[in-house]
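User: Structure please.
Assistant: Input sequence and predicted structure:
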Amino acid sequence: MARFRTLDDLELSGKTVLVRADLNVPMRDGAVTDDTRIRAVVPTLKTILEAGGKVAVLSHFGRPKGQVVPEATLQPIAQPLADLLGEPVGFASDCVGPAALEAINRNQVTLLQNLRYHPGEEANDPGFAQDLAALGDVYVNDAFSVSHRAHASVEAITHLLPSAAGLAMAEELNALERALNAPERPVAALVGGAKVSSKLDVLGALVDRMDTIIIGGGMANTFLFAQGVEVGASLCEKDLADTARDILAKAEGANCKIELPVDAVVAQELAANVPTREVPLEQVDADDMILDVGSKTVAQLKETLGTCRTLLWNGPLGAFEVAGFDGGTVAVAREAARLTDQGNLLSVAGGGDTVAALNHAGVAGQFSYVSTAGGAFLEWLEGKQLPGVQALIK
């Protein structure tokens, strides 16, 4: 990746800095239930304030589709942001125009109202971008998670103001670069989840870049079925068998090893505390559902990780959310964490289910980098150029 601009490339003293954050956080009864994304932007805001700048924070919340929807207001996030920042945070009732300008003039730090109350945001409308740019002197994108979208506050605004990546964005881009574009080899990708259909582009892009691809979760069943293995009543996209065979052939041609489960934990239904059996694949019965990898597969995967220097992780190995089917994901995640702690592995993980799985295993903090971006992380894995990132490249 060409070098992208960072905070060091901007003059911040005496400037009003528009910071694009992702404050689209989980809420219940008007209270924030997970402040991970709010915490992520705090170091950038502190750096700007310490350099003598003023801050106006831009974000979307939910999908109001260009309408003012009261339940999509960002107002309840102002206080949690102030608490984490240790500074008062003013709130503007709009993200453009006189209300926004007045609030910015009055406060050192201002949170602006939901960008998506305006249809121009998602349309990447130059006029709306102009209205945003009129509020500040420089622009900082600190939200990798929205950078796959060509929206006005992500892309169009960068043509109007000096622009750079914030600290969280820069850290994320550097971690991803080290894992995908310039990895220390051998490099492996663990790709899991329910459906092959949602990860086809990812698998297609990775076979040319990885030494090994470990396939887990429900999508492994489709690959097993494509090779003539009976998968019983398991989740399986049988209509994608030809596609799976194409990916296997492409991997062979690219000298990329595909690792599939060799045994499984099966049950008659996906529910907590139901009777389970661990069986070799050839002993999966017609009414069995494959819901996790077995202990032989876990041992094999640990061995594979022990030979790797870089690991990319996206998706779980089994139905980890349900008690009894989390063993494979937890065991392999803990081994990756152990190797990372020893300095033997660079481990980069991303995607919603992945973050939940690593938190469940208690190891999210031990991976080299865990991205909370869902769609942006997947598009990056697919090798796509992200509009919000391209806009910041020198």
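The CA atoms of residues 38 and 145 lie 13 Å apart.
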